[in-house]
């Protein structure tokens, strides 16, 4: 399939967008999967932390208070 993917790269990309991930094999072994950029972003998660917020909001125990740890060391002013 690697030879086919090389020869028809634009077709493999088109299929990844339309049909979903495309598996590429080398010598009969699965080697890589080509996915559309939107699908890759979805699978990679959200860097904004939105997924963590959604998971915390879906907690079965929403009444539990979580107190963040604070640094015990003294804080000093900074001249800017």
SSE inventory with pairings:
Elements lengths: L1 H6 L1 H10 L3 E5 L2 E6 L2 H8 L5 H8 L23
Antiparallel strand pairs: 1-2
Describe this structure in words.
The structure is a single chain. With 80 residues, the chain is of the alpha+beta class. It has a single domain, classed as YefM-like fold, CATH 3.40.1620.10. 40% of the residues lie in helices and 14% in strands. The protein contains four helices and two strands. Strands 1-2 form a two-stranded antiparallel ribbon. A hairpin with a 2-residue loop joins strand 1 and strand 2. It is elongated and about 65 Å long. The N and C termini lie far apart (60 Å). The model has no long low-confidence stretch (mean pLDDT 84).
How confident overall, as mean pLDDT?
84
Strand order of the largest sheet: 1-2
What is the strand content? 5-15%
Largest sheet: 2 strands, antiparallel
Structural class: alpha+beta
Return the CATH architecture.
Answer: 3-Layer(aba) Sandwich
- Number of distinct helices: 4
The Rg value, from CA coordinates, equals 23 Å
How would you summarize this macromolecular structure in one to three sentences?
The chain is of the alpha+beta class. It has a single domain (2-57), classed as YefM-like fold, CATH 3.40.1620.10.
For this entry, give a set of tags:
single chain, 80 residues, alpha+beta, YefM-like fold, two-stranded antiparallel ribbon, 4 helices, elongated
């Amino acid at each position: 399939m690697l030879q086919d993917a090389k020869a028809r790269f634009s077709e493999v990309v088109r299929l990844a967008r339309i049909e979903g991930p495309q598996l590429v094999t080398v010598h009969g072994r699965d080697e890589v999967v080509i996915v559309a950029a939107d699908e890759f972003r979805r699978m990679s998660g959200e860097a904004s932390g939105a997924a963590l917020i959604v998971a915390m909001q879906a907690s079965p125990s929403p009444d539990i208070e979580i107190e963040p740890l604070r640094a015990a060391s003294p804080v000093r002013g900074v001249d800017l």
